[in-house]
Design a protein that fits this description.
The chain is mainly beta. It is built from no helices and 24 strands. It folds into two domains: about 180 residues, no CATH class; about 70 residues, Lipocalin. The strands form six sheets. Strands 7-8-9-10-11 form a five-stranded antiparallel β-sheet, with no helix packed on it. The protein has a five-stranded antiparallel β-sheet with strand order 12-13-14-15-16, with no helix packed on it. The chain has a four-stranded antiparallel β-sheet with strand order 3-4-5-6, with no helix packed on it. The N and C termini lie far apart (about 50 Å). The mean pLDDT is about 90. This is Intraflagellar transport protein 80-like protein. Keywords: Cell projection, Cilium, Flagellum, WD repeat.
């Protein structure tokens, strides 16, 4: 996608290739000092008045369909699916907020952190988002509540990207390194049973009533799992494993021809 700089006489003085795919948003700042662009490539960029790229401030997983400056040009608002996200440009914000895009209602406002937030990104499924700051990465659920905090020795985290299945995250860090992580500690309950993903390829099963404890080792990293009606269904990138609560040792396993996005269980 391109944009054109046009003088007062209507003459195109410069054309800039700004985005791969369509450029959907183009907005001048309120003081006319900078141009914001966004597009199908899930990027938001800031340009000078002369058409020089100043910075790529947002890298997300979904096309950015709308974006706007705050009145003082210190923050931008942009969309990610059904969510609206505020991104400070001065890197002074130490808290995050979650809004309902349908009625503009504030759903959650976090406490003040120790350092400014430098990156934030929703996962494609919309169930989690990650927040990066100095030596810290936080994982929050879709309502904004903190799920986990990891302290790292990488400096500030400047960019966050998710895998398409929402199970892995990559982070560009201030020390020049790329940090990767996998979402674990996903916990499901059914009847007296509790299933917890404790490692990328390992699930812990507990029967609370009988104090039964089982460890299920999966051949590949777990992408999805669902528990109900006496069965635990686990998918990896290539296979589906179906466990019965009456026999955890011999699951039914079959190969998948394509990736799975959702698992729903029901009675026969």
């Amino acid at each position: 996608g391109q944009y054109h700089l046009v003088n007062k006489n209507g003459r195109i003085e410069k054309s800039v290739n700004a985005h791969k795919g369509a450029m959907i948003v183009g907005r001048w700042s309120n003081d006319d000092s900078a141009l914001l662009t966004a597009g199908e490539d899930a990027l938001i960029k800031i340009w000078s008045r002369s058409g020089m790229l100043r910075s790529t401030i947002i890298k997300t997983n979904l096309p950015i369909l709308t974006s706007s400056w705050s009145p003082d040009c210190s923050t931008i608002l942009y969309s990610q699916g059904a969510n609206l996200i505020l991104q400070p440009l001065n890197s002074n914000s130490k808290s995050h907020k979650v809004w309902d895009a349908n009625n503009n209602q504030l759903l959650y406002s976090s406490g003040i952190g120790d350092y400014p937030i430098t990156a934030i990104s929703w996962c494609p499924s919309g169930n989690y988002f990650a927040v990066g700051s100095f030596n810290t990465i936080k994982l929050c659920d879709k309502n904004g509540w903190l799920h986990s905090v990891e302290k790292v020795n990488t400096g500030s985290i400047y960019s966050i990207a998710w895998s398409s299945d929402s199970t892995q995250v990559a982070m560009a860090c201030g020390n020049g390194k790329l940090l990767t992580g996998h979402i674990i500690d996903r916990r499901l309950e059914w009847d007296n049973y509790e299933a917890t993903l404790i490692k990328r390829k390992m699930i812990e099963i507990r029967d609370i009533g009988n104090e039964v404890h089982e460890i299920l080792e999966i051949s590949d990293r777990v992408v999805h799992l669902e528990f109900g009606f006496g069965h635990l269904v686990v998918t990896t990138l290539a296979q589906c494993h179906i466990y019965s609560v009456t026999n955890w040792n011999t699951p039914a396993i079959f190969n998948l021809k394509r990736s799975i996005s959702t698992i729903l269980l029901a009675e026969k």
